[in-house]
């Protein structure tokens, strides 16, 4: 059993929790985005067409071919949308933990997992379009590099219908360059050609990844975090323990759902390189990956994902617990408790 910490504060300060979650997401993503880019490119490359040997090889080649800021392709859209995404995820978990602990004042492990499940379901409203746009921008460099390695092979557009805007990021000339295309242009083109559903391509796979992640992460973090309390009378936890708890819980949860993340990334990649197949849903994607690449393909980028998620959630939990939102809204320990 795990007591729900300060449930009345969670109920009264939900706007502050949303602010804390948004700031936490922005700080965390800024720190780990290059590793996330390497993860996306490693997951999307197929057997026999491997441009990158590992994470460091990917980052070094990215800097050489695209410059330092090439490692931050797609960061703008991610920073824009990660604010509401992390705000929803972290605040929703607190909200559902509070609601589920109203009767007894305590949370069983099952209720903690249920709260995490609900938080994961809420966040996909933002996560799916964010990941959709981010992946297109992150993967543009990999496709251009593939064409430089194999100049005689022309990358094929497998989205259904040719679009000048979406094609611009993937030049098919003998010496392709990574052309600049913005998230706004991709969004407009998707809305024009596919409607709102175009932005939610891969929704099933995103749910399949984010719900199990939250189910594993939040209860595990809560229990690890509780171990760092000074005493039952003094439940405060040092900031470094919050960081370590977030890192440990995040890395374990990330590796556990890595196969789902591979499927999601493949489904959301609109552009394919030479001889890269398209998929008709989650089941077809899983079946084709198993048949053509083997079970090991589902762990592509797993180490990168763990390296992304561990510090991301470690930093996020520290920033989240600092209480910037409470400060901005004028809360103090006195008026929180007396409200």
Descriptive notes:
This protein is an all-alpha fold. It is about 70% helix and about 0% strand. A two-stranded antiparallel sheet has the order 1-2. Helix 4 packs antiparallel against helix 5 (about 110-150) and helix 9 runs antiparallel to helix 10. The longest helix is centred in the middle third of the chain and has 41 residues, at about 110-150. It is globular. One of its GO terms (biological process) is malate-aspartate shuttle. It comes from Seriola lalandi dorsalis. Belongs to the mitochondrial carrier (TC 2.A.29) family.
* Sheet with most strands: 2 strands, antiparallel
Relative strand content? under 5%
Radius of gyration, in angstroms, nearest whole number: 21 Å
Lateral arrangement of strands in the main beta sheet: 1-2
Membrane topology: Multi-pass membrane protein
Keywords: Membrane, Mitochondrion, Mitochondrion inner membrane, Repeat, Transmembrane, Transmembrane helix, Transport
Main location: mitochondrion
Protein name: Mitochondrial glutamate carrier 1
Short structural summary:
The protein is 69% helix and 1% strand.
Secondary structure layout:
Layout: E1 2-3, H1 7-12, H2 14-44, H3 55-66, H4 75-100, E2 106-107, H5 109-149, H6 164-167, H7 183-194, H8 196-199, H9 203-226, H10 239-256, H11 258-268, H12 282-293, H13 302-322, H14 324-328, H15 333-338
Antiparallel strand pairs: 1-2
Defining key terms:
1% strand, two-stranded antiparallel ribbon, globular, 339 residues, single chain, Mitochondrial carrier fold, 69% helix, 15 helices, disordered N terminus, mainly alpha
């Amino acid at each position: 059993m795990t007591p729900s910490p300060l449930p009345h504060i969670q109920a009264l300060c939900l706007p502050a929790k949303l602010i804390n979650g948004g700031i936490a997401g922005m700080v965390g993503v800024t720190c780990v985005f290059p590793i996330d880019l390497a993860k996306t490119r490693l997951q999307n490359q197929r057997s026999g067409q491997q441009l990158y040997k590992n994470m460091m090889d990917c980052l070094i080649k990215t800097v050489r071919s695209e410059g330092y800021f090439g490692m931050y392709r797609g960061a703008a859209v991610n920073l824009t949308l990660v604010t509401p995404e992390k705000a929803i995820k972290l605040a929703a978990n607190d909200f559902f933990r509070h609601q589920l602990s109203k009767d007894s004042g305590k949370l069983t492990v099952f209720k903690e997992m249920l709260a995490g499940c609900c938080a994961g379901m809420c966040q996909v409203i933002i996560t799916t379009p964010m990941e959709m746009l981010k992946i297109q921008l992150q993967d543009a460099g990999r496709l251009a590099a593939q064409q430089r390695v194999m100049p005689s092979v022309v990358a094929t557009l497998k989205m259904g219908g040719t679009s000048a805007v979406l094609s611009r990021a993937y030049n098919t000339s003998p010496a392709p360059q990574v052309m600049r295309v913005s998230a706004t242009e991709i969004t407009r083109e998707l809305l024009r050609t596919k409607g709102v559903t175009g932005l939610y391509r891969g929704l099933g796979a995103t749910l399949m990844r984010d719900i199990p992640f939250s189910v594993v992460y939040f209860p595990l973090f809560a229990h690890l975090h509780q171990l760092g309390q000074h005493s039952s009378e003094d439940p405060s936890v040092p900031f470094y323990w919050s960081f370590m708890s977030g890192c440990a819980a995040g890395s374990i949860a990330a590796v556990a759902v890595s196969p789902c993340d591979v499927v999601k990334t493949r489904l959301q990649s609109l552009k394919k390189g030479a001889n890269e197949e398209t998929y008709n849903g989650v089941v077809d994607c899983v079946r084709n990956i198993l048949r053509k690449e083997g079970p090991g393909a589902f762990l592509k980028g797993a180490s990168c994902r763990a390296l992304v998620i561990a510090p991301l959630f470690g930093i996020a939990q520290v920033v989240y617990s600092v209480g910037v939102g409470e400060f901005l809204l004028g809360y103090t320990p006195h008026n929180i408790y007396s409200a």
